[in-house]
Amino acid sequence: MLNQTGKALLIGATAALAVTTAAPANAQTGAQAAASVSKHQEVRCVKQSGRTCVYSVSFFYWNKKGATKRGLNYVQTARSPYKAGKARWLYKQPGGSTHVGKSWRTAHSVPHGNAAEVEWGKPGATAGPKLRKGTLVCVQWKNLSQKACHKLK
After folding, report:
1. CB-based contacts of 29, cutoff 8 Å, min separation 6
2. Closest listed residue to residue 74, CA positions, set 14, 146, 4
3. Cα dihedral sign for 49, 50, 56, 58?
């Protein structure tokens, strides 16, 4: 069990490293980028039936300083040990109903690992759907009842 948790955290850490080292598509000077765009990363671990970390999810989003919209540029989920499946992401804006962000996508195996992974978007980019601050974004694996969610800050 401890080994599974370590792998899930390793996958999340790897995704975080990829985002922090990737250059944005619209590269600005360091001072301009720091003043205008704020980037966020949130990682969630879903437990089910007392098991440690059935799957993990990383949400990457950005916003311009003072803006009420958030750009969701990358969502990644991983399941360890490897088990074939499908996942999708959903969102619910404040006062609205739940919408499917992207439909079911089949997981692929992680190279040199024992995990299944699904990704949407582009790490390090300042692109993607623009959602209001306070929007609840979730990832759901098919045939698992519990979702992993994060409210955009």
Report:
1. none
2. 14
3. positive
**pLDDT digits over 135-148, tens only?**
999 999 998 888 89
Amino acid at 34: A
For residues 149 and 97, give the distance between their C-alpha atoms in angstroms, rounded to a whole number.
Answer: 15
Question: What pLDDT, on a 0 to 100 scale, did the predictor assign at position 45?
Answer: 84
- Tokens of residue 44, six digits: 């969630």
Is it true that the peptide bond before 94 is cis, omega within 30 degrees of 0? no
Confidence of residue 130 (pLDDT cuts 50, 70, 90): very high
Cβ 20 vs Cβ 40: under 8 Å: no
Q: Which one, of 143, 149, 41, 142, lies nearest residue 92 by Cα? A: 149
Question: What burial class does residue 112 get, using C-beta atoms within 10 Å of its C-beta: 0-12 exposed, 13-18 middle, 19+ buried?
Answer: exposed
Q: Using one digit for the tens of pLDDT, what is the confidence trace for 16-48?
A: 433 333 334 444 444 344 447 788 888 888 877
At residue 105, what are phi and psi to the nearest 5 degrees? -125, 135
**Average pLDDT value for residue range 37-65:** 84
